[in-house]
Design goal:
The complex is a heterodimer.
Chain A (H helix, E strand, L loop, with lengths): L6 H17 L2 H6 L16 H13 L20 H11 L5 H15 L4 H6 L4 E4 L18 E5 L5 E5 L5 E3 L10 E3 L7 E4 L1 H36 L1 E2 L2 E2 L4 H29 L5 H27 L10 H11 L6 H11 L13
Parallel strand pairs in A: 1-2
Antiparallel strand pairs in A: 2-3, 3-6, 4-5, 7-8
Chain B lengths: L6 H17 L11 H16 L18 H13 L8 H14 L2 H12 L5 E4 L15 E5 L4 E8 L10 E7 L10 E7 L5 E6 L8 E12 L3 E2 L5 H13 L6 H17 L4 H29 L8 H23 L8 H9 L9 H12 L6
Parallel strand pairs in B: 1-4
Antiparallel strand pairs in B: 2-3, 3-7, 4-5, 5-8, 6-7
The chains are: A alpha+beta, B alpha+beta.
Chain lengths: 354, 377
């Protein structure tokens, strides 16, 4: 027994951290937001600085974490995902990190897809929308800016498209940096990169990645709030000395500290293909989604009115959390899947209709 | 990460499981927080000791097995899985003993631990007083030096003393230097409750068991050798003991995994609507989260970490979700909920969790100030 981040996974996280701290700033996140409320007909490009940070992460090996060394990756397993993706989540870097690193890159390597070198070098970003029947209606995160889009085909297979192949419309979003787009028509073509079994595993990795990012977002919002309430004075004292504030933030820390190990455990379960890997993944997503939304709510409340502005940075992280918490299966959806596994309900929902 | 057991750990698990299956009393014992139930529990505790299962993580010379923390967790899992009785010895074995190992002299360890392991001496905890609960450093019970007799004489009153009416000994804090700073004038004493000058009066808890006691001290003598950790140096020893109470040792995850599994079984047999089903699943998730948190914590402890204030995270989590778990069970039971039974008893007991071992309000202050670094009031 040893429940701790593996050395190689920690090394990857620790290599990414200084780069993210220095360059993935709130100003960078803001640069990926549309200038006005209406994104207009012209699809914006992902800011060059965001791509530059992503290439920096690629140089460290983040993009190839799950790709075999023979294919130019680091050859790590799912244990490597939670630490580095939490760190990316903490930074708020507006890229489809989980979709590219956790979901798609290993599929491209296995399929021998020619896009792999560009994905590994950080030149190309891949987004994914793996929901089944509703795929044509659900918005695609980074659907306006990602270079490739992974979609689920009619028979459960996954197909990769160049973004230019798809007819999409931009969708104004709560988190403007998510650059949502909706398909205007169900696409033809695309290159199949995974059959139904590999597609199911890829979806589980996407859930794991979202959970990891949510934990990082929760940690960021909590630390911002701790700093704020320690420096904001009212009634002649820092508001962080009031028990009403302390208790709310203590409960927030509890939520984060009990979600984080569950996400690590889900990574381990996926890496060793444990029989209960899907169950552990659902546990992780429930705890991470609930932690992130709990902390977002506490963070805004403890900031007071400044937290309810767009001038202050908190909303950048809260809105990301609100986008990701219901994605890749909401907490309710994952509880329902667990209920089925525990014999509490007979209805087993389709695992990708979350 | 490696969440698998070694062959030796698996063998340990098999041995524990086989012994428990053969020996756990059926039907279950009555509550150990009543006079009659306590006596039945002592027989069980002694059977555990005879088979060397009462203190698995202790050294062999004290009746243990030198088990690792991982093996201890395995034993706890098997213990709860088997539906074995509550441990009426827990306040000695799980709370005082860790402090004895850390602060006790070899003489104290050799004298006290074997009899604790064998359930020959039964320990109660003496912190709270009528005027000092959460504000533990505000206690007024005192100890006065008796040079002639070579020890101390105790005066004052302790209260809410769990199983005090059935125990033979008490550990607790007494003020030995009234002039000193609140936290510095306190000494940790190990007291024989059968000494002259001590009166113990049991009284009922919310659940109807006579599990609480008032303990009155009127000049009871304690020899010098029963000071733990040094005169006027009791506070850090008490904090170590309360750390054990909040953290892993008193409330291992298996207790809650077992309860959550029973709740799932109850849910399967009842017709569940979506809302109640979600709550059942959520309890199971929270028990699992506590288990995973403790696996990480044990890994740290094995590597030399001290949980310190992080034990308040354990306490907040298990005590809050234990209440939710039992509330869900009561709702599932519907009209049956009010009947006396394991679930209604568990529900009433769960309500004590957010109070004992330091109220959750105090734990949130500790988390906020010592883990998040927020300013003191």
């Amino acid at each position: 027994m040893r429940f701790a981040v593996a050395e190689d996974a920690a090394a990857l996280r620790d290599a990414a951290q200084p780069l993210l701290d220095a360059r993935a700033t709130p100003a960078l996140i803001r640069s990926a937001w549309p200038a006005g409320p209406d994104p207009g007909p012209a699809q914006p490009a992902l800011p060059a600085q965001v791509r530059a940070v992503w290439r920096g992460l690629a140089d460290i090996g983040v993009t190839g974490a799950l790709v075999a060394e023979a294919h130019g990756g680091l050859g790590l397993d799912e244990n490597a995902l939670p630490p580095v993706l939490s760190r990316i989540g903490h930074s708020g870097l507006p890229v489809p990190a989980g979709e590219t690193v956790a979901v798609t890159a290993p599929l491209l390597a296995a399929a021998g897809h020619p896009a792999l070198p560009d994905v590994l070098s950080g030149a190309a970003l891949v987004t994914a929308q793996l929901a089944a029947a509703a795929a044509a209606e659900l918005p695609i995160p980074f659907g306006q800016t990602a270079d490739y889009v992974l979609l689920r085909g009619d028979n459960g297979e996954l197909r990769l498209y160049e973004r230019g192949e798809l007819e999409t419309s931009p969708v104004p979003a709560v988190d403007g940096s998510r650059q949502l787009a909706r398909l205007r028509a169900r696409p033809a073509g695309g290159v199949p990169v995974a059959g139904p079994a590999d597609a199911a595993a890829a979806w589980e990795r996407g859930v794991l990645a979202a959970a990891a990012v949510l934990v990082g977002l929760a940690e960021r919002m909590l630390s911002m709030t701790v700093d704020y309430v320690a420096s904001r004075w009212q009634f002649g004292v820092p508001i962080g000395s009031f028990q009403a504030v302390k208790h709310r933030l203590a409960d927030s820390l509890v939520a984060v500290e009990f979600a984080r190990p569950a996400v690590l455990a889900a990574g381990w379960a996926q890496a060793c293909a444990a029989a209960d890997a899907a169950q552990q993944t659902s546990v992780a997503k429930v705890l991470a989604s609930d932690a992130a939304t709990t902390v977002a709510r506490a963070a805004i409340q403890c900031h007071g009115a400044i937290g309810y502005t767009t001038e202050y940075d908190l909303h950048l992280f809260a809105k990301r959390a609100w986008a990701l918490a219901p994605s890749w299966g909401s907490a309710s959806w994952h509880r329902r899947r667990l209920a089925a596994g525990l014999g509490l309900t007979e209805a087993v929902p389709d695992e990708r209709e979350g | 990460m490696d969440l698998t057991s070694s062959p030796a750990e698996q063998a340990f698990r098999r041995e524990a499981r086989a012994w428990l299956e053969a020996n756990v009393p059926r039907p279950p014992l009555p509550s150990g927080d009543t006079k009659a139930g306590f006596a039945a529990h002592l027989d069980w505790e002694r059977a555990l000791f005879e088979a060397r299962w009462s203190v698995v993580s202790w050294p062999q010379r004290y009746g243990g097995r030198d088990a690792s923390l991982w093996e201890w967790l395995i034993f706890e899992e098997e213990y709860y899985r088997a539906g074995a009785p509550q441990r009426v010895t827990q306040n000695g074995i799980f709370l005082l003993a860790p402090s004895l190992f850390e602060f006790g002299t070899p003489e104290q360890q050799d004298r006290i631990l074997p009899r604790m392991a064998a359930a020959q001496e039964l320990w109660a905890q003496g912190w709270s007083e009528p005027s000092a609960g959460s504000d533990l450093a505000g206690i007024t019970s005192r100890a006065e030096r008796d040079e002639q007799a070579g020890g101390w004489r105790l005066y004052g009153q302790k209260t809410w003393t769990t199983r005090g009416a059935f125990c033979t000994h008490l550990f607790g804090l007494f003020r030995t230097d009234p002039a000193a700073d609140r936290h510095r004038g306190l000494t940790y004493f190990l007291v024989d409750l059968r000494s002259p000058g001590i009166e113990v009066r049991g009284f009922e808890r919310l659940d109807g068991d006579e599990g609480f006691a008032d303990v009155f001290f009127d000049g009871a003598f304690v020899p010098e050798r029963d000071v733990l950790g040094g005169v006027n140096r009791g506070w850090p020893v008490a904090m170590a003991t309360t750390g054990s109470e909040r953290g892993l040792t008193l409330r291992s995850p298996s207790r809650f995994m077992t309860a959550a599994s029973r709740l799932v079984e109850l849910g399967r047999s009842a017709g569940l609507d979506g809302g109640l089903r979600d709550r059942v699943v959520q309890s199971w998730i929270e028990a699992r989260a506590y288990q995973l948190f403790t696996l990480e914590q044990v890994t740290g402890i094995v590597a030399g970490d001290k949980p310190g204030a992080r034990s308040s995270l354990n306490k907040l989590y298990w005590s809050e979700f234990d209440v939710r778990l039992h509330e869900t069970a009561m709702e599932l039971l519907g009209a049956d909920a009010e009947a006396d039974g394991p679930w209604s008893r568990g529900f009433l007991f769960s309500l004590a969790g957010p109070i004992y071992a330091g109220t959750n309000e105090i734990q949130r202050n500790i988390v906020a100030e010592r883990l998040l670094g927020l300013p003191r009031a």
